[in-house]
Structure formats: structure tokens, C-alpha cells
Amino acid sequence: MAAQRISNFVVRYPVWFLVVIMSISSFLGYYAYNGLSLRVVLEEMMPVGRTNVQLIQKFGAQFGGANNVLIAIENKKGDIYNTEYLETYIKISDEVYFYPDTIRHLVQSLSLQKTKAVTGSGGRIQIDALMARGAPKTEAEISLLRKNVNAQYRGFLVSDDEHSAIIIADFKDSVDYEKVVDLIDGFRAMAAKKGIKVYAAGRPVLLGTIYKALNRTMLILLVSVLLVGVILFSYFRNFIGIFVPMLSAGMATVWGLGAMGFVNYNLDPLLILLPAFIFAIVLSHSVQFISRVIEEFEEHHHMRDAVRHGLAKLMFPSMAAIITDAAGFTVLVLVGIPSIQALALICTVWLLSIGPSLVFSAALLCILPRPKTYRLGVHLVEKFWSLLNLERHAGAMVLISFVALGVGLVGASRLTIGDATGSPILWPEDRYNQDTEVINHDFSALGTDLMQVYIEGGENTMLDPAVYHRIEALDRHVYETVPQARPAQSLVGIIKKINSVLNEGDPSYELIPDTTEEIGFDIYMFRSKGEPGDFAAYTNPEWQIGNITIPVKDHTSQTVDKVIGQVANFLDNAPKLENGAEFLYAGGQIGIAQALNDEIRDSNTKVMLAIVAVIAVCVFILYRSVTIGLVLILSLAVANFITYAFMAFKGIGLSVNTLPLTALGIGLGVDYGIYMLDRIREESGLHSSNYEAVREAIKTSGNAIFVTAMTMVLPLVPWFMFSTLRFQAEMGLLLGMVLFLNMVGALVFVPAAVLYLKPKAIFGDPALRDNGNEPDAKEDGSVMRKIIQHQGAGAE
Fold it and tell me: Could you count the other beta carbons within 10 Å of the beta carbon of residue 650?
């Protein structure tokens, strides 16, 4: 038998195995320390092949939109029209403009030369920078600034109540997000001394906030590990029960992180829970193994003999569970997002490393002395199971499981795709979310999320009146049909304003001219007295491309679908332009959000069906039983859909961050069922009664399953209670929930189902057992019962 041969080989040469495994661990540990990075790379987070992503990659360098920051500066003492406030505003604006990672031509501020006041009369036009000479000092200068702002910038660069002004900046993808937050915190400290408050929103600020929370995350991780140690001690009451699982799990974690470092993988800081979770997975398998070795102490007094028999008996269910775990995570390659595809492959290898970690545990036990004291058994599980009386109520338990599945399906149907208002990664009371709400409330022509529509055509496309009429009509349509949308930002407003001033300021002439020459003249007037490169935010030197920026209040899936749907509705029904120019959508954060939401929406069903199919195939190959496969899949389905229903109830959307963790939780749940089924099958050969076989399996593997589940569920509690990141707290709760439900399924539903269905793959042929061809349980007895009674010398 292969398992027996492998077990004999490990026990014969434990030192060699330890040397090889430790050497590999040292090699991978080097790469884990030097090669792994915790950061978000935008390109790796965007779905491959999506139109929106291709547009952002094509136009993003010129028009930005994906990495923008809004910095609102509020005067708590009054409006913005006083010299002290404006000097502070200019100082902050200059620091943002000259920051090394700022894309300067995309910065917008009241104090920049490209922010123009358009005035004139008598056929003459005057276009000057709004604050060409710095902060106004006299009443006349301040009055003029107020007049010009109200004419062109109120609601956009200045708040509706005139107490705040804003700075808009785009940053390079290579920017250090923590330094951006440090920069803004510096602004806050400096401004607070003058009665000025600074608000900030945007992707770089959000990511910087997340990065800064990592120190607390590491502390929570340490608390979780200590909690695992306490649980192990309470169960085993000896050194090897704590030391061996922790060391084995640590080794596998080094292998996984080392594999990431070896390929220079960028681990999303939000997924830092993933290594912690896989640590717990490895530890749970090690706990199962050590529990089995301790059982063998009653029949084998030498440590190596106990290890040999324990490893041989557990090899089959362990490898079955490991393979299904890994295969379940591999299917995430179906999600067309590079970071998730890479994560799927790396974590597959990582989960397969549980096999070597079990060998490592066995080899380590071989060189350690047999513990003088040991203790197994959690009587709570047995008492609870006895209360259920599955001998009589197995069918009722199966029925209850189907009812639970139905409830879960109804709740899961309300699960949303995408994010909520603000950032669901942070708590509602977090400063970032509060700042986002303030900016969206105070600036009626601005939004913290942007959607961009790109225009592309031949030379001089952006001088064609027809293009500008189309832009104006699109803006009007979206603004009137989408409540969350704000007035679009484009050259249309500038052209109309200049045209009006050229005609004595007559409002009836605030319209788009009918000739290319007039539009060219209007734009020429606007570009005068600007800085080199300022106009790159609007078009290129050949006038071939342009953009429309539609500010939006939030990026919920409903808002994203509605705004893009209305843009599509308008453009798809509009006649083609004579010059052949095309309107392409959608860019900006809204475009990215739609691409991600669509990918998750399209992939989620495929991934879940693939996980179920892979698990079903693996289980069928291992057990040659369709019935057992259905039992395990139903147990998983109940836990999965109840968890999804809970997500819907809590308003947690399915996103690029939640999908990998929920998939891992779903795939992992099959472990408990496999261990339980395999032990029931083993015990059925020792008992004449199916119920007694199941009862004995509960006393043995059931106890181990309960403890291993607790080593995974309870360490997630600190994440829920203490994490400053809402995402980590909720994921801790969700993972704990799905694992707890899978444990309940393994301890209640799986035994009830096999008692009710009596599959031959578990209990064999009833005719043979009735003829007495099976061993009598009375002769063989129960090893576990002896251990529980013995409790080890001095264990009490």
C-alpha cells in the first residue's frame, strides 16, 4: 500500500527529511523576506480584455482619472475670500503641483495660471489667470475674485457655500501612497493652526490609509497566533501538541510567501488575511495528524511506531482534503484579473505544500520523545451530538438542511456586486469616508468618482462644432437622467463662455459657434497666458483626441450601471458624425468599477460551479460514490449560501477583494466532511451498527474536527473585534462564519445524511455485514474510548 510505504520511508529517515525540508524553507524564506511586496499595482487589478481597461490604458497617461485626489480646504472662520485663507490655499496648491509624483498638466486649482477668468466688453475680451498676482490683498481684488469665481467656478472649484475651495490632482501609478497621506496630514496640521480644515478623497488617499493600518494588522496577526497556541494547549496539554503544529504551519507559510517573493508577486495589503488563513489551514491538518498519532499510543508504545501507523491511516483523507482544497482555489484562474489569477496559482502550490508539511510533522515527531502526558476529547461535542439523537432523527436533520439551503438561496439572490458609497474597506466613521461625504455634499458640480468618455478621430477633430454639440447633448442627457451625476467637465463650457464675452457678454450667445475657425479662435484665446503643457488635459497637439469627465457622487454598482447605461443609450442612438469621430466609454474610476463588476459578475457563477465540479470529481475519484459527492456538496452549499445571504444582509458586496477569500472558505469546508466520512468508513469495519460507527467517528475525528475548526474560527475573532479596516473585520467574520457552518455540516449533516442514505462506499454491503463477515466492534473496542478514559498519566 502506497501510504504504508511512504510512512515507513519517512519514519526510517526522519533526519534526512528534516534537512531537505528545512533547506527548502531557508531558500524560500530568503525570497519571502526580500522578494515579497505589499502594494497594489493598478494594472494587475484590472480585468484583461475589457473595453474599459483598454481605453484607460490607451488614454490614461494623457487624461488621468484613475489615480486622482480631491483636497478640499475649508475656512472654519468664514468664506474663502480673505487673504490669510487664500495664502494657505496657494501654499498647499503649490506643494501638490510640484510634488514629484504629480501629473502636473492634470492639476486643477484656483491659483494655477491655467485657471482663467474670462471677461470683456465692447468687442474686447480679457482672459487672465484667476489669481495671476497671488492672493488678493485689497477689498477690490477680493471682490473681483468673488465675481469671477461666481461666474465660472462656484460648485466646482469653490463650494456652494463659498467656505471651501478644492485642489484636484492626478498622481503617477508609481506614487508612494503612504507618502501622499503623509503629505495631506502635513497640510492638515499646518492649516489647523489657522482655523482651516483639510478634507481629502481619492484612490491614493484610500490606499495610503490602508497601508498605514498594516502595523495594527500585524499586531492582530500576533494575537491570533497566540490564541491558536492557547487552543492547542487546552486540547493536547503537552509540548508536541503546540510546537509541532505551529512549526509545521509556519514552514508552509514560509513556502507560500517565498513562492510569492520568488515570482515578485505584489500581495494586496487587504489580502494579508489570506496568509494567516492558510497558516490556520496547515495547522488544522497537523492537528488532525497529531490527534491520530496520540490515538495510536494505546497500541504502539514507541513514538516511531505510532507515527508510522498514524501517518499511514491519515494519508488518504489528508491528501484527499489537500487536493480538493488546492483544486478549489485553482479555479480562480477563471477570473480574468491578473492579480487573482496569479494568486490562484500561487495559493494552489501553497496549499499543496500541506503534503510536505505533514511529512515534516511526522519526521519531527520521530526525533521527539513520546509525551508523558496527553489528553484528547472534547466532551461538549459528544453531549451535543447525543442530544440530536440522529439514530431517530437523521431524516429530520437532512430536511432541516434543505430548508436552510432554501433560506440561503433566497438571501443570496440579493447579494450585490461591487462596492458601497464611500469605501467599504473602511468603517463609515473613518475620516476618509467622512471626507468623501463632505466633498460630495459641498461641491454640487463635483464628485469623488469620475467617469470619462474619450473622443477619437482624425486631425482637427476637436475643432469641429459637431463634436462639441454632441458633447453638450450627452452632458445634458446624463445630468437629467442620473441623479448621482454632476455637470460634465469639458471644453464646451470654456468655448461657450468666451463666445458670450466676445458678443458683449450677451447670455444668448453663450453657445457653441458654428464654424471651426470660431472654435479655434475661442480656444486660442483661452490657451493664451497659460503654462506649457496645460492644454494636454483637453487634447493632443494634432487635435485628434479629447475627453469628457463626468463627476459622480459614488461608485455603487447601481450608480455605475445607471450612468454608463445612460451614456450608452445616448451614444448608441445618436447618428454618426460626418468627420468619423468616435465617442468611446468608459474611463476613470467608474470605468474601472464597471470592468471589475462585470468580471466578478461573469466569473462568480463560473467559479462557484467549477469549485463544485472539481470537488465532485475529486470526491468521486476518491470514493467512487455519487452519493458521497452529493452529501459533501450539499453541506458546502448550505454553508456557502447562508454566508452569501449574510453578506447581502450586511450590505457587503462581492468584489475583487472578497471573491478570493469567500472562494477559499467554500473550498476549504470540504476538509471536515472528508475527515468525517473517512473515519466513519474506518469505524464501520469495527462495528455491526451503522449508528455506533458514526458515534465512534464523532468521538474521535469529530473531536479533532471541532478543535481544528476552533483553531481557525476563534483566531478570526480579533480581526472582527479590533481591525481598523472594516474589510478585514467583515472578512474575519465571514470566514469564521463559513468555517463554523462547514464544521456544523460535518458534525451534524454529514453523519445524518450517511445514516439516512446508507451509502455502500461508507458502510459496505449490508448483506455481508448481516452474514457476520465484518469484524465485531466488541472484540476490537475503541482506541479513542480508552484514551478518553485514560487521559494520560497526570493529565488530569
Answer: 11
Distances (CA, A) of 458 to 444, 543, 610, 649: 35, 8, 46, 51
The DSSP element (H or E) to which 91 belongs, if any, is: helix 83-97
- The answer to whether the CB of 329 falls within 8 A of the CB of 343 is no
Here the cell at position 689 is: 451498527
Residue 118 pairs with which residues in a beta bridge? 127
Rounded Cα distance, 150 and 141, in Å = 14
DSSP state of 112: S
Q: CB–CB of 77/195 below 8 Å?
A: yes
CA angle 387, 393, 399 (to 5 degrees): 120
Strands of 196-202's sheet, edge to edge?
Answer: 164-170, 68-75, 196-202
Q: How many helices (H) and strands (E) does the chain have?
A: 34, 8
Cα gap 216→721, rounded to integer Å: 12
C-beta of residue 116 within 8 angstroms of C-beta of residue 129:
yes
Residues with pLDDT less than 70, the chain: 1, 40-44, 121-123, 374-383, 385-386, 388, 390, 418-423, 529-532, 657, 661-669, 764-796
Angle at the Cα of 764 (from 761 to 768), degrees rounded to 5? 160
Cell 454598482, residue? Answer: 557
Ordered alpha helix ranges (H), 331-445: 338-352, 354-366, 379-388, 390-412, 431-442
Compute the CA torsion angle 533, 536, 538, 544 (nearest 10 deg): 130
Number of other residues whose CB lies within 10 A of the CB of residue 122:
7
Evaluate whether 735 touches 665 at the Cβ level (below 8 Å): yes
pLDDT digits (tens, 9 = 90+) for 196-241: 999 999 889 988 888 888 778 888 888 888 888 888 888 787 888 8
Q: Global pTM? A: 0.76
633 contacts: CB under 8 Å, gap ≥ 6: 612, 615, 616
3-class SS at 421? coil
Torsion angle (degrees, nearest 10) of CA 284, 286, 292, 295: -100
Q: What are φ and ψ of residue 102, in 5° steps? A: -80, 140
DSSP one-letter string for 299-354? T--SHHHHHHHHHHHHHHHHHHHHHHHHHHHHGGGGS--HHHHHHHHHHHHHHHTH
CA dist list (Å): 424 to 210, 460, 644: 12, 43, 17
